[in-house]
UniProtKB/TrEMBL annotation, chain A:
Gene3D superfamilies: Leucine-rich Repeat Variant. Pfam families: CAS_CSE1, Cse1, IBN_N. It comes from the Eukaryota. Keywords: Cytoplasm, Nucleus, Protein transport, Transport. Its main location: cytoplasm. GO terms for biological process: protein export from nucleus; protein import into nucleus. One of its GO terms (cellular component) is cytosol. This is Exportin-2. InterPro entries: ARM-like, ARM-type_fold, Importin-beta_N, XPO2_C, XPO2_central.
TrEMBL record, chain B:
GO terms for molecular function: nuclear import signal receptor activity. ARM repeats lie at residues 102-145, 145-173, 233-275, 275-317, 317-345. Belongs to the importin alpha family. This is Importin subunit alpha. It comes from Terrapene triunguis (Three-toed box turtle). It holds the Pfam family Arm. GO terms for cellular component: cytoplasm; nucleus.
């Protein structure tokens, strides 16, 4: 591919086509591009286009295509061909920084990503000029360029935040520090100065603040692994400036947007992070600066509004205070009663309030609300941060903090009582406060003994939570209902069981609430209660205790799934699963209706499976129904097959990838319930299971293997007689599986089932080939996992066919092969076999080799026999088998004699 | 287990340092600085002489060059003295200018001027200060042939000259293993030891300090280590010096021992077989930070050795001193003490038992809870090793001391490795809990203490090993409810989203 106009033209056309909404135009174009990307100059053509094309769309498209090309091809993988020729690599590295910096922002971002991908592979050794090239641009004075450099630097250096210390990494960081730290510091100072000279120029300020944010991020990356000498020496410069930036405000930088954080907020929250990093890791050096930061951050909190755009800043700022206040030597900064009151009043309480944005999420974005409130993905929320600060303060000031908050809780509850429909948010805040205060006591309770609690959880429950849940209208004050249900959930271990039992019908009732959050919480709370354990590890809530509620529980759960927005609600489905598991036989009367509803659901969601958790619990519920019912009545398996097979067929026919593995597992379960015969419906499916295309998907492999194992266990004879022509296909699957390092153990599962169940004559003709395949794999790539499986297999073979057969088959492949296997594999590796059954198979197998195999007793194998005996005894001790008992039970007298001969020769004494 | 194949951690896991060279490390090279007009380490008599002769000397560099190359002995002295004074300025001594002026060979030549003691002394001082500089500057001195000359001067009848030579040689030895060994080959050790053993009582304490410091530099540095023969020669003297009362001598002697023990087990063996450990342990409890630091370092190194060597340290009483060091006001001491403890905890369970008996668990858990981060990090290792090698009963005891809460808290540390070690420790705790059939109880504790939430959050950690370890724990101990019901493989094990379920 030459760098010619004609080629540029062609490429332009194809790029254009890749943007076409019509797949019949788009796909071929994408294919074409992929087919030519291996050619020399291809990436350079793309770079030329993104620089020089007249069409802006093509420019952007070329940049995206270029980045993806780099992502796919830049890394040189061992044993694979280099996908980009060296001259192209050099040309790319020579041009890309300049190109990136001179491109408009949209393209700059793509190229910056590409640089970081290249940098990850080549920097620093194979790209030594990169740093100097970047640093030189700092002097350009053009902040568009500077920001590009900073962004690139950030993408190169951010990995320092998560990689482990190593010589290689630290050498790189040192190199970066030597070249970068001083220029970055200079840039930092210069930028801050420019901020004050341009204090009245909004557009300039925006660019400058973008730089400051990047600089602050770089500071974090460069200081993450350890405190570098340079930054210790320049701590004064950095921290003084960080501190003053925290207190800075400029009207021109304030944004009208309530949601999106502005530059000022982003910068300040990064500074909070930087201060927190120093406070956590470099306390000794940072100590002189810390009190200043505490004051600044606290003031920041007091003066920051309730808008969503401040959330990240506020939560980072509170987290900083939370981490500092529990350190013994900073205790004094918080000790003063006025300080404490002020923190509680001005920082904690306001940030615990239920805001308009929370209310909006509760109603319109319940999924997100639940994730934050219930699943603890609220790490960055204000409420969460405020909670953590409460806990932090309680470490040293539990008494005073509790005192301050008790007053608040009481006054908020009184406000609520005055006029619930207006003041319900006060009660919400009160519950939240109690929860955050008490959850610390909860921790102590399980850590040590029962602490003398300031909040009586049960009393609060009875007086303030239950009344809400008992009210006849399940749709009134939904937020308070959700709070109440959550309270039960959180304190389920603190509230006495009788209170929980009182709550259960209330929870079941709230499954009918219209609010998604409320019925979801109800389902979740029930699910949680059902998993609680009492004495003897039995469930705390028993099936008999649930007896009066079985029908209404099941009805309401499935009814809840019909609410708009909850049709694939994973909490409800999980509660279904858990209810089945708890109720066991009690659900049998309802099974026809339940399984009908479940299959209907399955049919519906299989059109477009989108909720993996929901789907999983749905299949679990189906399996539970089958198990529970068939345990009582195995014959019922037929009715399940009747109900399910139609949907299953549809899933298989439509190739619903997400569900196929589950279908195989349910089928295995059903087949395993059958007694010793295999229904013809299964046999009809058998040939399809061997289709290679099914085995291409890794997700199918474990369940398919399990299913084939079930086929072999139940229908080996049927297969041998009626489907003998499929045996090669079966072995083909085995062959494919053992060729892969990831799946070889699955291949052995299959092979072991074949050996165990198939009539010997049906596989006779393939046996030698099987061993040859195994040897080929051993020669090509010998892994420990493979050897372990291999050892189990040959011992199983020996148990099944006898030691002589084993020796003969080895030696038929190559004379003396058996000895080699003994010496090179069995003796050195046998101890690695793990698993009870596996060890047992090996112990029996080896015993047979030692005693039943005449060649072991003469010829050259004798010496090996002694070694093997050593190994075997060691191994047997490991297996915790008693050798003598095995001797007396499983061996004939002659064999026993031989064995004892070996024992003597090996100077092993039996216990 | 994800990572721990070798538990005993030698000091230098990584030999690149980002940090400032630590203030509490021993100094490699020292310049002899004149605060007034002369060095403070000189004898009063000598000072007077210098005072007289320094009044009028203010030659330029050019004049110095001319003078030393000329034939006028008086100018020799004057020039050398001027050069020495320039080199002894507190700020910006012109080391490179002097080197570039090419007078070093002359200065070295003056070292042999036994007829002119003052000249000899001035030259020695000037060269000492040049040798105190960078490696290149030290090399300039060595390559001019100063080493044999200085070694010869060790036996000078004039105490201040032999003292200055000791100092110069210390600087040269401090440059690195190459010069250190070249000194040893030049037979520096016998006359140096002779200085200590024949007449140490006669000397002022300052001289003995200098000798000790130079000896410590002869023990210092690895790759390669100092020759074993040399170590064997020096050790008995170090043992004698350890009996001294002076804290500087004690400090440098302990540093020397710490260098000798910072190595493979056979190196450690040479040291411990001298019976030096009880005294070292005693010094770990010294009120002087400058003594505690190297003594602790040395013992810390010893317990990286074999179980037997560690046992010798235990028998010498290290476990009775460690509790107070774990609570030392200096974070660096806490850190080193925790590191030492972590290596003892990596030993067999009878040593772990001694650790329990000596009451180490309480301060360990305290440190884990409240220490500075670098100390907490070491404490995490100690706990990790403890849970790897301890018996179930011992692990239970550790948990009873409340280790779980601070351990789980540290899962929010900004350090991937520490997090990984904690996850591994939690996995160890679960193994113990499994043996006691208390898995559920531990699950419960971990959840109640906020650990589960943190482990779940770690599933999005950017470090692959960390998130895999977190995922492993979740799948193994916290997702069992899901999979356990009917043994359905969750879609996660089929290469898709992972189902997690907290109890």
């Amino acid at each position: 591919m030459e760098l010619s106009d004609a080629n540029l033209q062609t490429l332009t056309e194809y790029l254009k086509k890749t943007l076409d909404p019509d797949p019949s135009i788009r796909r071929p174009a994408e294919k074409f591009l992929e087919s030519v990307e291996g050619n020399q100059n291809y990436p350079l053509l793309l770079l030329t286009l993104l620089e020089k094309s007249q069409d802006n769309v093509i420019k952007v498209c070329a940049s995206v295509t270029f980045k993806n090309y780099i992502k796919r091809n830049w890394r040189i993988i061992e044993d694979e061909p280099n996908k980009i020729c060296e001259t192209d690599r050099i040309a790319i590295k020579g041009n890309i920084v300049h190109l990136m910096l001179s491109s408009p922002e949209q393209i700059q971002k793509q190229l910056s990503d590409a640089i970081s991908i290249i940098g990850r592979e080549d920097f620093p050794q194979k790209w030594p000029d990169l740093l100097t090239e970047m640093v030189n641009r700092f002097q350009s004075g053009d902040f568009h360029v500077i920001n590009g450099v900073l962004r690139t630097a950030h993408s190169l250096f951010k990995r320092y935040r998560h990689e482990f210390k190593s010589n290689e990494l630290w050498t790189e960081i040192k190199l970066v520090l030597d070249a970068f730290a001083q220029p970055l510091t200079n840039l930092f100072k210069a930028t801050i100065e420019l901020c004050s000279t341009h204090a009245n120029d909004a557009s300039a300020l925006k660019v400058l603040f973008s730089s400051l944010i990047q600089i602050a991020k770089l500071f974090y990356s460069l200081n993450f692994q350890d405190l570098p000498e340079f930054f210790e020496d320049h701590m004064e410069t950095w921290m003084t400036n960080f501190h003053s930036l925290l207190t800075l405000d400029n009207k021109l930088l304030q944004t009208d947007d309530e949601e999106e954080a502005g530059l000022l907020e982003l910068l300040k929250s990064q500074i909070c992070d930087n201060a927190a990093l120093y406070a956590q890791k470099y306390d000794e050096e940072f100590q002189p600066y810390l009190p200043r930061f505490v004051t600044a951050i606290w003031n920041l909190l007091v003066t920051t509004g309730q808008e969503v755009k401040y959330d990240l800043l506020v939560s980072n700022a509170i987290q900083f205070l939370a981490s500092v206040c529990e350190r013994p030597h900073y205790k004094h900064l918080f000790e003063d009663q006025n300080t404490l009151t002020s923190i509680c009043e001005k920082v904690i309480v306001p940030n615990m309030e239920f805001r308009a944005a929370d209310e909006e999420a509760f109603e319109d974005n319940s999924e997100e609300y639940i994730r934050r409130d219930l699943e603890g993905s609220d790490i960055d929320t204000r409420r969460r941060a405020a909670c953590d600060l409460v806990r932090g303060l309680c470490k040293f000031f539990e008494g005073p903090v509790t005192g301050i908050f008790s007053g608040y809780v009481n006054s908020m509850l009184q406000e609520y009582a005055k006029n619930p429909s207006v003041n319900w948010k006060h009660k919400d805040a009160a519950i939240y406060l109690v929860t955050s205060l008490a959850s610390k006591a909860q921790t102590q309770k399980h850590g040590i003994t029962q602490a003398n609690e300031f909040v009586n959880l049960t009393e609060f429950f009875v007086n303030h939570i239950q009344p809400d849940l008992k009210s006849a209208n399940v749709n009134e004050f939904p937020v308070l209902k959700a709070d109440g249900i959550k309270y039960i959930m959180i304190f389920r271990n603190q509230v006495p069981k009788e209170q929980l039992l009182v709550s259960i019908p209330l929870l079941i009732n709230h499954l009918q609430a219209e609010s998604i959050v409320v019925h979801t919480y109800a389902a979740h709370a029930l699910e949680r209660l059902f998993t609680m354990r009492g004495t003897n590890n039995a469930t705390l809530i028993t099936a008999p205790e649930m007896a009066p509620f079985v029908e209404v529980l099941l009805t309401n759960l499935f009814k809840a799934l019909t609410f708009p927005g909850s049709s694939e609600n994973e909490y409800i489905m999980k509660a279904v699963m858990r209810s089945f598991s708890l109720l066991q036989e009690a659900i049998i009367p309802y099974i026809p209706s339940l399984i009908a509803q479940l299959t209907q659901k399955l049919l519906a969601v299989s059109k477009n499976p989108s909720k993996p958790h929901f789907n999983h619990y749905m299949f679990e519920s189906i399996c539970l129904s089958i198990r529970i019912t068939c345990k009582a009545n195995p014959a019922a398996v037929g009715s399940f097959e009747e109900a399910l097979f139609m949907v299953f067929t549809e899933i298989l026919q439509n190739d619903v990838q997400e569900f196929i593995p589950y279908v195989f597992q349910v089928m295995s379960l059903l087949l395993e319930i059958h007694k010793n015969d295999i229904p013809s419906s299964y046999m009809a499916l058998f040939p399809h299971l061997l289709q290679p295309v099914l085995w291409e998907r890794t997700g199918n492999i474990p369940p398919l293997v399990r299913l084939l194992q079930a086929y072999l266990e139940k229908g080996a004879n049927t297969i041998a007689s009626a489907a003998a022509d499929k045996i090669p296909g079966l072995l083909g699957v085995f062959q494919k599986l053992i060729a892969s390092k990831a799946n070889d153990h699955q291949g052995f599962y299959l092979l072991n089932s074949i050996i165990e169940h198939m009539p010997p004559e049906s596989v006779d003709q393939y046996r030698k080939q099987i061993f040859i395949l195994l040897f080929q794999r051993l020669q090509n790539s010998k892994t420990t996992k493979f050897i372990k499986s291999f050892l189990v297999f040959i011992n199983l073979y020996c148990v099944k066919y006898g030691a002589l057969a084993l020796q003969e088959i080895f030696d038929s492949i190559q004379p003396k092969m058996f000895g080699m296997v003994l010496e090179k594999i069995i003796i050195p590796e046998i101890q690695k076999v793990s698993g009870q059954v596996e060890k047992k198979i090996c112990a029996v197998g080896i015993t047979k080799i030692l005693t039943e195999c005449p060649p072991m007793m003469d010829t050259e194998y004798t010496k090996l026999g002694i070694w093997l005996m050593h190994t075997h005894i060691n191994a047997s001790v490991l297996f915790m088998f008693k050798v003598p008992s095995m001797l007396s039970t499983s061996l004939n007298a002659e064999a026993l004699q031989y064995l004892q001969g070996y024992l003597q020769a090996a100077s092993v004494t039996l216990l | 287990n994800y990572l721990m194949t070798s538990f005993e951690r030698q000091r230098m896991e990584v030999n690149v340092e980002l940090r400032k060279a630590k203030k509490d490390e021993q100094i490699l090279k020292r310049r002899n600085i004149s605060f007034s007009s002369m060095g403070e380490s000189l004898s009063p008599e000598q000072e007077k002489k210098n005072a007289v002769s320094t009044v009028h000397c203010c030659l330029s560099l050019e004049e110095i060059v001319q003078a030393v190359n000329g034939n006028n002995p008086e100018l020799h002295l004057k020039a050398t003295q001027t050069a020495r004074r320039m080199l002894s300025r507190q700020r910006n001594p012109p080391l490179n200018q002097i080197i570039e002026a090419g007078i070093i060979p002359k200065l070295v030549e003056f070292l042999s001027r036994n007829d002119n003691v003052t000249l000899q002394f001035e030259a020695a001082w000037a060269l000492t200060n040049i040798a105190s500089g960078t490696s290149d500057q030290t090399r300039a001195v060595v390559e001019a042939g100063a080493v044999p000359a200085f070694v010869a001067l060790l036996s000078s009848p004039h105490m201040h000259i032999s003292e200055q030579s000791v100092w110069a040689l210390g600087n040269i030895a401090g440059d690195g293993p190459m010069y250190r060994d070249s000194l040893i080959h030049n037979n520096v050790i016998p006359p140096l030891l002779a200085l200590v053993s024949t007449s140490s009582l006669v000397f002022q304490v300052g001289f003995l300090r200098n000798i000790t410091w130079t000896l410590s530099n002869l023990c210092r540095n690895k790759n390669p280590y100092p020759p074993l023969e040399a170590v064997r020669q020096i050790l008995p003297v170090l043992i004698r010096l350890l009996k001294h009362e002076d804290k500087d001598i004690l400090s440098d002697t302990c540093w020397a021992v710490s260098y000798l023990t910072d190595g493979s087990n056979d190196r450690i063996h040479v040291v411990v077989e001298t019976g030096i450990l009880p005294r070292l342990v005693e010094l770990m409890a010294s009120p002087e930070l400058s003594v505690v630091t190297p003594a602790l370092r040395a013992i810390g190194n010893v317990v990286t050795g074999t179980d037997e060597q560690t046992q010798m340290a235990i028998d010498a009483g290290v476990l009775t001193v460690l509790p107070q060091l774990l609570q030392h006001p200096k974070p660096t001491i806490q850190k080193e003490a925790a590191w030492t403890l972590s290596n003892i905890a990596a030993g067999p369970c009878h040593q772990i038992q001694q650790l329990i008996t000596c009451g180490l668990l309480l301060p360990l858990v305290e440190l884990l809870d409240k220490g500075e981060f670098k100390a907490q990090k070491e404490a995490v290792w100690a706990v990790a090793n403890f849970t790897t090698g301890g018996t179930v009963q011992q692990v239970v005891e550790l948990v009873q001391y409340g280790v779980l809460k601070p351990l789980l808290n540290l899962l929010s540390a900004r350090d991937g490795k520490t997090i990984l070690v904690i996850l591994d420790t939690i996995s160890n705790l679960f193994l113990a809990a499994e043996k006691l059939e208390e898995t559920e109880k531990l699950c419960f504790l971990v959840e109640e203490l906020g650990g589960l939430e943190k482990i779940e959050a770690l599933q999005t950690h950017n470090n692959t090993m960390v998130y895999q370890a977190a995922l492993g724990l979740i799948e193994r101990y916290f997702a069992s409810e899901v999979c356990g019901l009917s043994q359905l493989l969750p879609s996660g094990s089929m290469g898709r989203t992972v189902i997690t379920c907290d109890l």
